[in-house]
Design a protein that fits this description.
Layout (H helix, E strand, L loop, with lengths): L3 H20 L18 H17 L14 H5 L9 H8 L3 H7 L6 H7 L1
Helix pairs in contact: 2-6
Length: 118
Amino acid sequence: MPSISNGFQLLQSNYSKRINFREHRTGSLFQQKTKSKLLDNRSYALTTFWYLHQNPVKAALAESALQWEYSSFKEYCGLSDENLSNVELGKAILKFSEIDFNTISKIELSEEEIEKIF
C-alpha cells in the first residue's frame, strides 16, 4: 500500500522531470530531507500556499512573485498557461476565486504566520 511519503516523492520526482525537461537541465530541484506536513485545515493550507509564492521575494530572488519563473503564481493569476499545476483544483480546494486571489495575493504574511508553517 503506497504511503503519503511515497506520494510526495513521486510528486517531487515528476515535477523535477518537467522543470528539468523545460530548462534542458538535470538534477534535483529540492534540498535533501524535504519536509512534508499534512494540511489539515484551510488556514494552514492558505498560509502555506501564500508562503510558497512569496518566499522567492523574501529571499531576494525576485522583485515580485510574478517575476519568479519557477512558480505557479502566474498560472493562478491567469497570466500563464504553463500547466505546471492544476489551478482549478487548487482554487477549489483553497476555496478562492480570481477576485479573492488577486486581492489576497498582495498581502504579505507576518513572521508569526510563517512560524506556524514549520
